[in-house]
Batch of 2 targets.
Target 1
Amino acid sequence: MSITGALEVASRADARGRLLGELAGAPARKGYGIAYDLLGNRAEAEEAVQEALVRACESIGDLREPAAATAWFLRIVTTMCLRTLRRRRLRHALFGWLPGRDDAEPPPRDDIAERVHAEPEPAPADALVSRETLATMLRRLDELPAQQRAALVLRYGHDLPVPEVAELLGVGQATAKTHLVRGLARLRDLMEES
Amino acid sequence: MTECDIVAERVALGDPLGDLAEHAASCARCRRLAALPAELGAARSVADPGLGFSARLTAGAQQRIAQRRRRRIAGALASTLAAAAAVMAVVARQPAPGYALDPSLFPRPAVRLSHDPWQDPEPTPAKPTHDVDPDVRTLVHFARYERAPHAHAHWSRIEKPLAPYRMLFVGGEP
């Protein structure tokens, strides 16, 4: 290997190490928040962030602007979450009908257990939403298609503007708006059914 | 598009309801829909990944990167070896001489020879005969590419002059 080649490899490895160090801090925590709200399970959320971190380091060449590294990383996290949701649904559709296949069922929602059952009941005046409504909503969110669910969680749960939601979902703004409108309408119908 | 649809769109995008505020207040479904964004906002969890999250993440990622790099190298090596083996097999493959030269396997060629092409390469008008030169048979056999895996003869094995074969290419009768 020539000296230039060796230097290039070394600088790439160095850049990868630096990127890993940077992303594992605040961006990873933010990514974890998004992943946890999307997946509802701690283990799966951490797995999604970890996988996103690995992919980010492996495809460091795709990063055009180093300043946009966090947004780029969060997009990978969202993609990982959407993939997990789709796999979960596929597994359930394929093997859910088999008796004794517990792994076909989605993992338990830690957020319901932690927030609805463990936290002390807030005073009625402080409670924006009752625990029961909250638990129902989190369960009903699971029934939405992955993209609609992600759009709702990112837009209203994380207060992101529509362009940023579209960016994280990897779709155009018009598509993101469609996901939001349809997702809200579907969620309302599901909530009315329950 | 109904008023409810327009309300749904405005609520979803966070636009002001404007002239539809009255409808949104009176319609139960629109009221329910308008309340959803606030409820979804309240459903957001403040997820704490726990102590040592960054260190755990970094160590796990480094381990995975190294593991995948090893796997990738092994995969590339295996596919290179497989490709080399396939190339070697194709190059080393030759038709069995017994099969190629067995006259019983050759079909009788449609060409009827009127003279010995080895003695007299130039065609001379003569009466038709059923004698077929074995070399011509072999040539015809090789020409039937759909039967032979190799659509060519092994030129190193051909010792006789090639002049008679030329006639086949130019379309004449040998």
Target 2
Amino acid sequence: MAGVVLQDLTKRYDGGALAVDKLNLDIHDGEFVCLVGPSGCGKTTALRMIAGLEEITSGEVRIGDRVVNNLPPRDRDIAMVFQSYALYPHMSVRDNMAFGLQLRKTPKADIDKAVVEAARILDLERFLDRKPGQLSGGQRQRVALGRAIVREPAVFLMDEPLSNLDAKLRVQTRAEIARMHTRLEATMIYVTHDQVEAMTMGDRIAVINEGVLQQAGTPKDLYELPQNRFVAGFIGSPSMNFIELRLSKDGEVLRLTGEGAELRPDDTQAALLRDLATDTVIVGFRPEHLELAALSGPVLSVSVVVDVVEFLGNDELIHGSSGGRDVVAIINADNTLRVGESVTLSAPPRRLHLFNPATGLRITKDGPAGEGGVARLMSTG
Amino acid sequence: MSVQAASLPVGAQAKKPRLRLRPTRLVLNIVLAAIAIFWLVPSIGIAIISLRPNSAFEQSGWWTVLTAPAQLTFSNYQGLFSAGFKPGQVLDSLTTSIAITVPVTILVTVISSLTAYSLVFGRWKGRTLVFLLIVAMLVLPLQMALIPVASLYKVVDTSTGLHLFGSLIGAIIFHVAFGLPFGIFLMRNFYSGIPHDLLEAGRIDGAGEWTLFRKVVMPIGIPALASLAIFQFIWVWNDLLVALIFLGNSSHITLTMFLYGQTRALANNYYIISSGAMISIIVPLIVFFAFQRYFVRGVLAGAVK
């Protein structure tokens, strides 16, 4: 087992497109780190550079204490699970799993032992002599996992391994990978575009957008303290709502209004906003933190006209519009809201996230987030 | 109760296709049978002619066998084989044809396969251009190259003391050169369908390029290799033109040259032509059936989603 350090890792394609821009990440030995971001954000390219499948334009990849930039994939002591499974179609499950060990000239008895053990862990014993074509999608992905396990690599790399599975299998295999991680105590780097997968599996999550690391931290950190508007909107389902409010100072009293909403800030927020150079601020609030009850004291109130009501069982997903801006709320199903109805939703100040409209960065105690904010989030974790 | 009710329509449905007449299918079968007979008649005819005595050829048509099967005899074949491996006779021609066709088939499949691997999975610039040039060579008619290559061979022969013109090696080189563009085209297109993920998985597993080619790509490419081998074998086996140009003045006589030699004597030699033609059909048939089992459809099934 080994940790992985990415230092200023950059990938620029021949055409000039920048896929990954100075990615810095320190992945500890035995840690499960998810690289998450929208399609085309560079997360898979980063993973492929760690694997040695993609040339590194600049920067450094270290696995354990070795710089592996110029090592071919086979010498990096890694195993990779592909989104497409990438099983050898002409080989049996047994041979698929044994192939890597055979190439490393492992004694046959050891190979057999490793394959049988991996098959036992993944419940594949019955299928060892079948070809991949005779297996279901879930079984194939388990074979791909088995192929990685038998090698006992220093680092497991997984490229969206659950994307091709149906919803039920995805949940099952997710648990299987989590169990595998606990059991093997291995370093795992897991690429996904699904923030739910990242939140449930990762010890730490690195959110990437347009090739740039936005924030790295524990799922709780990312949920509670997103460092910029992108992370705030990307983490959480349904996504965070954003409303732009105009700041006005009436003597010592701060008023924030706009887009059918009003914020009466608490003392902490007032202190943050008082020194702000801009006269507008983006307020983010999660759908699950909105309440129907009218709250007194410091609060964000949003007047919403209900467009759609989706029944989820215990809760209802309310889609509405406030001053032309879409707002989503999760409200207990025990309500009488109807489409077309106007209603005021409230959120307590501690559930609000304030962002600078110009930079998109979180407004923090250290002053309005600027360049320093970026540097800080890079070193998070 | 509900189970019974549900099972009834299923049973009824299962019986339906048997009861219903499907006219489109019937018409299709008749048309296919007619085409099959149309195509088979010449082959059946020549097979029967080869099994009738030479004297019967001018007396009655081959179809009279259907009413008088007693006239069938192996005497034509006995006559043909009695000369043994004497130069210019059928067995000698057979071995000459095999000595050209087998190496050409092996060389074309192996070289095409390796080239296609490099064109698809290699990481060098200009791969597309090279492939386009190879495709362009497909349109070059064989006849156009015969004379220039023959004179080239002669120049090489006089300057190096080699003996390309009039030798089997010379004919083999020519056939391989003309077989490669199609072989590379076919294999390259087949290999293009192999997901790159498979090779990347192999690289991570520890395979080098040669191992990837032998253990991953080639086994997957077997159906294409088998069809290429069959095509190539039949083309070279049936070739007369190249053999006449490059071996015409030598002691090497291929089976097609042997048969061609008999046609010049016209009608009298039909018994030799028919039995010789049967022998020349049988070899490609054996090759076809030997490789046919490799035509496994969906060999890539399960590799990737």
